[in-house]
Amino acid sequence: MDMTRRTPSAELKRATAEDAARSQPTFYHSQVAHSGESMLHRLVVYFVVLASPALAVSSEPCPAAVRDTVMKAHPAARLKTCKPEKDNGKLQYEVKITAEGKPLELDLTPEGLLLQTEEKVPLGTVPAAVLSGFQTKYAGTKPVAAEKQTKADGKITYEVAFERDGKRSEATFTDSGAFVEEE
What we know:
- By secondary structure, the chain is α+β, with helices and mostly antiparallel strands.
- Helix content is about 30%, strand content about 35%.
- It folds into three domains: about 10-50, no CATH class; about 55-120, Nuclear Transport Factor 2, Chain: A, CATH 3.10.450.40; about 120-180, Nuclear Transport Factor 2, Chain: A.
- It contains five helices and eight strands.
- The chain has an eight-stranded antiparallel β-sheet with strand order 1-2-3-4-5-6-7-8.
């Protein structure tokens, strides 16, 4: 027998708390959820699921040829994501890795042919010719970020990000400063 004294106010608080707990969203399959689990436990499970690299990969598996090429080029790399995408109507895989502490993005064909490697670089390391080409094309606009893109044949381009009219855009230049395209 419960000997604690219950006041209408205490009953209302308890009922309100129980109602609030029932209305909390379940972040994972309902068969796993139990009424005794804390919200903290649910949040931990939710964030673990979101942070899991295996779940960040698309539902299609990363082809073995793609994984093999990546691991051959960067043996100590940690695979973060591998997802299919279309570029000019052709299927390719965008693979994000961490290699030697640096995040890299590689574009490969389904057969494992490396098309391009992209690496974020500080603006101060972008060649003067690229920055000059950028200023010529976008006078008065300030670059905000840059990526070095190394093609499979060794040719290097730079993708320079900038904001114009409140929208972020990117322009690609050869390493000699010639404009290639804007995205």
